[in-house]
Amino acid sequence: MSSTIKTHITILSMIIMALFWPVTTQAAISLSPPSATVKAASDYATDTFADPWDMSNKEDVWSNYGNITGASFNNGEFSGTAINNDPQVWLLWGGYREAILTDRDGKQNPISTAKYGKVTFRMYSSAEGIGQLYWFYERDTSTNYQVAQFSVKAGWHVYSMDAHPYWTSLWTSSPISLRLDPVNVGGAQFSIDWIKATSNNSSTTSLGYTDDSPDESYSLFADSDTSNDFFQIDSAAAGTTSPHSFNLSSLAGGTYSLYLKSGSDISNPVTVTINNAPSVIITNPDVAGGRDWAQEVRRDPWDMSNHTDISAINSITSQGFNNGVYTAMNTSIRGSAIDDPFIYLNLSGKRINSSIYHRLTIRYLYSGTFDLVRGTMARLAWKNYPNYKGWQQSNDILTYDGWNNLTYDIRNLSLDVGSYGWRDSISALRFDPHEDPLQRRFYIDEVKVAADDELTNGSFDIKYNLSDADNAPVTLTLGVDRDTTYGNGNERTLHTSASSLGSLSYRFRPDTSFNGSYYIYALVSDGLNSNHSYSSGPLNIDTYKPKTYSRKTVARRVVNKRSVRRYQRIYRNYYRIYVRQRNKTLRRRYFKLYRRYLRAYRIARKGIARVAVKWYAKDPYVIGNEAYAVLRIKKRIKVAVRRSGRRTYKVVYRTVKSIRYGWTPINQWRKYVFATRDSGTYRYWVYAKDRAGNTQYNVATNWLVVR
User: Fold this and answer.
1) Those residues with Cβ within 8 angstroms of residue 695's Cβ, 6 or more apart along the chain or in another chain
2) Closest Cα to residue 202, out of 48, 36, 34, 41?
3) What is the pLDDT, as a whole number, of residue 227?
């Protein structure tokens, strides 16, 4: 156990006293049960991450445990064994200095102690001892922190930290890290069921009671498992009249026995049920985005299925591809020194449009354990085109034991090298797996650089996970918001209905009033508690039909006199040879050459018109200013037809050129140079379709006149 514990911190004496309470039915105090299920208090983890610290998933605990072996998650409990007298479990990690922050790092998710004034947890220990709760205010955990000590008893118990005599003076401001040291006994086994940082007075109930001698103050205690393991949750002054509203904010969802104590008198137990708040997490749209550049542009995703996914390597050996995973080791140079390993992702000679594709996902693993000193961090690096600014390299991307699923918006990555960032086109992309000065094997499963999520053929399937430990009927509301601040008036409701629980989806078909970038939010309520969450990434909505424009163009054919003279000289020369030649085979050969260059001469005399066909497609909401454009040019001709035995003529347009641009820049005037030797009148049409599937609002058409 750390030696920095302050001397004024004492054991929670009131909890220890509760162990010796007599259980009697002849109490001077009679307590009446609450009339209904009680609303659970607002909880920091639920409100911030839409994921309470209920130990149901590995994200509830930071993966870098301290002095713990055999750590595991089972049946909603996090368990382990203390290696020594200082085991450490981080519920919230502030983030390393100079490392890129994750969505769950406390630096960008501080705990407001003014709002969340109570900390309570349920824990098992195989041994008695002393536990500690630390909280930190800086990313440097060696300074600016506070600690509260508590008595640990063998077995399952609920510990309420706000009963600590100095709690209100210690638990202040906005800590960014929270650490629980379960017990100071090496070899002790422990399990954590849940931990809550809850709002003061956000969960209350009215309790009626009678007291034969109401001359002392009252204390309300709870027992989570009817084992006479009392812990105090509220108090009332002497003479308080019945019924009284008691604060139950320290209690997590579940069933409890309540006891009221005044002096040496203890009431009968009554049962109270605290409602479990429902939870909703939006899984799509998300920060990983949608369309993958490598799949869409290269036609070959970076799924590490073979060597074509990597174009070059540096300081790497013992590499190979196995079942869609690339594995290698960093090489050794100059004896024991290890160079910096990295791989170049194969762009196949193409460039990444950074305004469209900017969402990075890497699934990555290394052998051994996390060791910051040994460089268990990755980096991303790239080159910009055409504005070459040298290599741009991200700051440390911290990686931990096991598979790392790294997902970032590359535009927001802080840089260690360069200052230009993810802009323009990307002509080179590099991944540095680690910086270990010793050899370490690493594995890469896949790499993606994706676009924002967007509509497909005018719709999008919003996906979400909905849960409630009580399995209570819930009402779900889905909506869109320009930001991620709920309640500021920017929300727009899409759908409200009673909902089942589980992994669900809703097909969103926006009308023309939706355009631009939105976050999806979900609000779920079971009638007592409600929660909301936002998508981790935006959804780009484009219901605008591209508008096309065109301009009339007139051009004259220009004769290249040098070409005319050249072809004339050649065809006349072959004609003279043909006339003089007596060999039949050679006569046929020279006659063909004569006719070829005669045709070239006649065509050259016509001249060439180079017509600048100008067109424009407008769509203010299109992603990356790109649309699928087609330009079609047709010539006006007269076609003879017979009607009633008479020959007449009708005007038709015959396609002479069809230009399929594919995905091409729009929102600017574009020019296509059409070359022809045929005079006459032409028309051209402009078509455009955006990535959301919206076809052009109009088909612009205009004339070409070639004289």
Assistant:
1) 545, 546, 687, 688, 689
2) 41
3) 62
- The whole-angstrom separation of Cα 251 and Cα 244 is 18
**Residue 390 contacts residue 418 (beta carbons within 8 Å):** yes
C-alpha to C-alpha distance for 458 and 471, rounded to whole angstroms: 35
- Cα–Cα distance for residue pair 312/343, rounded to 1 Å: 6
Contact indicator for 12, 121 with CB cutoff of 8 Å: no
The angle formed by the CA atoms of residues 340, 342 and 345, to the nearest 5 degrees, is 170
Taking Cα atoms as reference points, which of 429, 377, 320, 343 lies closest to residue 95? 377
- What is the reported pLDDT for 293? 97
The pLDDT, as a whole number, for residue 19 is 40
Taking CA atoms, 599 is separated from 252, 556, 561, 564, 607, in Å, by 92, 21, 15, 11, 13
> Length of the chain in residues, anyone?
707
Q: Print the SS3 string covering 431-481.
A: EECCCCCCCCEEEEEEEEEEECEECECCEEEEEEEEECCCCCCEEEEEEEE
Helix (H) or strand (E) holding 53: none
SS (H, E, C) 342-395: EEEECCCCCCEECCCEEEEEEEEEECCCCCCCCCCEEEEEEEEECCCCCCEEEC
Tokens 């009633």 belong to: 644
Burial environment of residue 35 by CB neighbours within 10 A (0 to 12, 13 to 18, 19 or more): exposed
H helix or E strand, kind and range, residue 318: strand 316-322
Inter-residue contact 91 to 62 (CB < 8 Å): yes
As given in the structure block, the two tokens for residue 242 are: 């019945």
Mean pLDDT by 10 residues, the chain (707 residues): 34 37 59 93 93 93 92 95 97 92 93 96 96 96 94 93 89 97 97 95 93 90 77 91 94 92 92 94 96 95 96 94 95 63 96 96 95 92 93 94 94 95 96 92 97 92 94 96 93 96 96 95 95 95 95 88 84 88 89 87 83 95 90 91 77 93 94 92 95 92 93
Entry pTM: 0.83
CB 475 within 8 A of CB 496: yes
Instruction: Tell which residue, 532, 537, 539, has the closest CA to residue 51.
Output: 532
Report the DSSP pairing between strands 515-525 and 539-542: antiparallel
pLDDT for position 213: 84
Helices 561-580, 584-606: inter-axial angle, 10-degree rounding: 160
Could you tell me which of 99, 114, 117, 110 has the C-alpha nearest to residue 177? 110
Report pLDDT for 601. 83
Question: How far apart are the C-alpha atoms of 662 and 630, rounded to whole Å?
Answer: 7
DSSP 241: P
Given a contact cutoff of 8 angstroms between Cβ atoms, the answer to whether 677 and 603 are in contact is: yes
Tell me what pLDDT residue 228 has: 64
Q: Which residue has the tokens 């997902």?
A: 407
pLDDT of res. 98: 84
Q: How far is it, in rounded angstroms, from Cα 687 to Cα 547? A: 9
